[in-house]
Amino acid sequence: MKVIGLMSGTSMDGLDAVVAELDWDGAAVTMTPLRHIERPWPDEVRQRLHASLGPTTAGELCELDQLIGQASAKLASELLPADLIVSHGQTVHHWVQDGEAKGTLQLGQPAWIVEATGLPVISDVRSRDIAAGGHGAPLAGILDDLWLRGEHTRAALNLGGIANVTIVRTARPPLAFDTGPANCLLDEAARRATGGASDEDGRLAAAGTPDTQLLQDLLADPYFSLPPPKSTGREHFHLGDLPDLSPEDLLATLTELTAITIADALAPYAPVEVVASGGGVRNSTLLAALKRRLPITLSDERGLPAQAKEAYLMALVGFLSWHQVPLLTGPHVLGRISPGNSPLSLPPPASLPTGLIIRTT
């Protein structure tokens, strides 16, 4: 199958779209990445998305749901032909109470994608896991475990708005969880300081010095001491009132916060390799802070583009859901299907694959 994957992460900076060819090779799945498009949200949409994290209205959420669906439909159409589309949508709230995930909300009405392409669309890929008692996040463990299995413990690290990791261990189930903030606080600080979308390449952070007191205060957040599995979002990690620091020192402090909390979260597992992906790998200052603490490899070196890995994850999730493979918590197939113009005909149910083979064109 050719599957289009659409992903917009917690950074809320834009939409990633990929198309990949997926097939069965015995009990394993093969994935051939074919094309990746990255499209920033229009300024108005991005501003409205950030505003929706605070007090909002049903009308505003309805409008954003349609706008994101329309943008997703347009981008998916650029990657045709395909057999199936998987759309994650834009997360605007992840409801966690007393360590238990209660619900999650992603915007991006899939009907616009179906109407534009005529293809079946799988969406809402997190809710079934939450209903079954899971966290619905992170989903990356589905790909990471199949991809990185081996004789030694490895970890996959995604540097989105929130940083998440998957611990891949020999003869043990994978452990996936959110470590805390990555780009979300860095981008918010950069917007406050410069009006720009981000601290490009970490240049401001590189010119600053971490503030010891602020760093200690931030590290005292109780989320960091919770045991995994756990999940979080921008509703928890955002900048409130801050001490009077220069933009450079503030960004240097937040960069250290991200690097320290990721390293601390991975320390009990002592991975021999940490395969990094996500928008944060573009930030050379953050990447250098991580490399001082962890054995970092970029996912590009293993065949998956670092900037597009989560969109390829969506393509894989969709392929497995189409084949009715149960994922995450218990025997549950993720996502809901919006039929396309042709009659819906699913293949026979398949078993969980034994591995993921990345092939290059």
Automatic annotation (TrEMBL):
Which keywords has UniProt assigned to this entry? Kinase, Transferase
What Pfam families does this protein map onto? AnmK (PF03702)
Q: Name one GO molecular function term.
A: phosphotransferase activity, alcohol group as acceptor
Q: Which residues form a coiled coil?
A: none
Q: Which GO terms describe its biological process?
A: amino sugar metabolic process; peptidoglycan turnover
Keyword Cell membrane present in the record's keywords: the answer is: no
Domain of life, source organism: Bacteria
Q: What is this protein called?
A: Anhydro-N-acetylmuramic acid kinase
**Source species of the chain:** Mycobacterium intermedium
